[in-house]
Amino acid sequence: MPGSAPPVPVRRLSRPLWLGQPGRMTGVSPMVARAVLALLILLVAIGYATQGAFEPVAERLSPVTMAILDHVRHGQSFYPAALDALRENGRALRPALLAVPLPALFVTLAALPPLVWHAGMMVLGVGLVMGWLRRIVPVLEGRIAIGLAAILLIAGFFPLPNLPMVTTPEGWAGVLIALSLVQRRPEAGLSAVALGLVAMILTPMALPYAVIMLVLAARAGARREAIGWMTALAVALLVLAAHAHALHGMVTAIDPAMDGPVHPIAPGTLIASIAAAQPVGGLPMSMVVPLAVLAALGWAHWRQPVARRAVATMAVYAALALVTGSPAMVLGLSPIFFLGVVFAPDAVRELIAAARDRRRITVTRVVR
């Protein structure tokens, strides 16, 4: 037709490198690709510039949990044991609902020999590794990618079966959250709900995860799953209310109080804290910071419902950790966070290819 332009050529998409399917960075415009690459460089720079001193998760949580467990195993009731352990370690007792952990894990572990503690966590860990591999192996190409995925999954879980982390409710909850995420399917939503409920009974740290899943289920129109998460949240809140009732009158005004719920930490400190909760922490920070940024990019690139839910969960826990400085929130995202590195090479290659695309479109007017 007169005045019409020839069709705009579409950039030929490159064959996936490791991830055998297109991702969210596939086919983006050059402008978007350059913006994302600039953002990645900025995030790495921020990570390097904001590193600070921090107390590793294990050193912050485990002295209290191990002391509580020791008292309960020697015949003391849970609540007096918890308050004594907090006082022995110089920790704040008010507000008691936040300072004193829920009793379920400690009462259970106290009734079992230590060998069973480690075996139970190992069983959960094997389920976590196998569950995630079952999800991602079909979409990965090449033994290197599959091997790296297995290594990162094992590394994310590795510290948890050992003392002192096996005594921390947040460590168990982190594994249960990761299991719940991978277990969730349209036809198997209630099993994910059950795992989430167990995590919430162990620690209130799991409550944000249940809220995220409820919102996503409601948005997806998964009515049965949404009802399941609402029921699980109601049960968890009842447990928390019973916990508050049991603590009533046991903590007085002369007991030390927390300064407040807001204790912001820097992004670089958060990255170091996440890495320190697993063997990645043994690497120099010059490597850990880029790996963390690549892991976030990889998760954002993988176009799957499970990845979208994992990204939402880790983003919320990262934001809560940045605002509160709570080591418990770090364990909510650390077991599978660095798994995103497996998906990053494809994302980086797609972004670089799109950013370098300098095709010029010529509009030719044909007069007949």
Provide the structure class: mainly alpha
The mean pLDDT is 88
Biggest sheet overview: none
First-last Cα distance: 9 Å
Number of strands: 0
Portion in strands: under 5%
Low-confidence spans = 1-10
The SSE string, one letter per element, is HHHHHHHHHHHHHHHHH
Number of structural domains: 1
| Overall shape | globular
Radius of gyration: 24 Å
List the helices and strands and how they pair.
Blueprint: H1 30-49, H2 57-73, H3 78-88, H4 96-99, H5 104-110, H6 114-136, H7 143-157, H8 169-183, H9 189-202, H10 207-219, H11 223-247, H12 267-276, H13 285-301, H14 305-324, H15 327-331, H16 334-337, H17 344-355
Helix pairs in contact: 1-12, 1-13, 1-17, 2-3, 2-5, 6-7, 6-8, 8-9, 9-11, 10-11, 10-14, 12-13, 13-17
Describe this structure in words.
With 368 residues, the protein is mainly alpha-helical. It has one domain. The protein has helices at 30-49, 57-73, 78-88, 96-99, 104-110, 114-136, 143-157, 169-183, 189-202, 207-219, 223-247, 267-276, 285-301, 305-324, 327-331, 334-337, 344-355. It is globular, with a radius of gyration of 24 Å. 41% of the residues are buried. Residues 1-10 have low confidence and may be disordered.
